[in-house]
Amino acid sequence: AQTVTQSQPEMSVQEAETVTLSCTYDTSENNYYLFWYKQPPSRQMILVIRQEAYKQQNATENRFSVNFQKAAKSFSLKISDSQLGDTAMYFCAFKGTSGTYKYIFGTGTRLKVLA
Amino acid sequence: DVKVTQSSRYLVKRTGEKVFLECVQDMDHENMFWYRQDPGLGLRLIYFSYDVKMKEKGDIPEGYSVSREKKERFSLILESASTNQTSMYLCASRGTGRGNEKLFFGSGTQLSVL
Predict the structure, then answer these.
(1) What residues in chain B have their Cβ under 8 A from chain A's Cβ atoms?
(2) Which of A8, A91, B36, B47 is a good FRET partner for B19, with 20 to 30 A between their CA atoms?
(3) pLDDT of residue B2 exceeding 70
């Protein structure tokens, strides 16, 4: 069974600094999708970034980038130039492609950006 | 952009009551989901629907049922609410096919069962 592990329940970072959130997963599939979702205090879950496993290049969305290490089954999120609006819960998620509809979510990392 | 609307932001119910949580999406998505979010446990799938009147159990369906009579609406039903169903409930939807893996979420319903 697939699993997603986020080992950092809470993190903090100073405004304008860089922070990396960790995520590891376990799967026997060769192709799959990985996601980072952000849930701010408003509770609206928003997609931050996604990665397709067959793509070697790490995904980037403005200040957000990932370090995707397929062999190590690692998918970390780097937030550069942290802003107060980045304060949120961040969830890593996995979705296989073998006829499954299921998304497997990690337990989340609560990130606080300090002024 | 896609809008997923959950009818209530907060709900307080009594043990044994029948509870309806409603979710509506406006982008003609085939797939809709109900998740439960608890601290330290992440999001757990309760039920999934891939078409009108079609549903599949997720990982924690016990104590819940669902209804999808129209494509845009997916309802979660607690037949007899219990205190261990106090939680945040999130609805999500997505389209079908490659390139439509992104889930769109509602703002959640915080349910308290007393």
Answers:
(1) 31, 33, 35, 40-45, 48, 50, 56, 58, 88, 90, 92, 101-103, 105-108
(2) A91
(3) no
Beta carbons of B107 and A105 less than 8 Å apart: no
Residue B1 banded pLDDT, cuts 50, 70, 90: low
Condensed to tens digits (0 to 9), the pLDDT of residues A57-98 reads: 899 999 999 999 999 999 999 999 999 999 999 999 999 887
Mutate which: A4, A33, A43, vs B, most B CBs within 10 A: A43
Q: How many CB atoms lie within 10 A of CB A57?
A: 8
Q: What is the DSSP string of A50-90?
A: EEETT--SPPEETTEEEEEETTTTEEEEEE-S--GGG-EEE
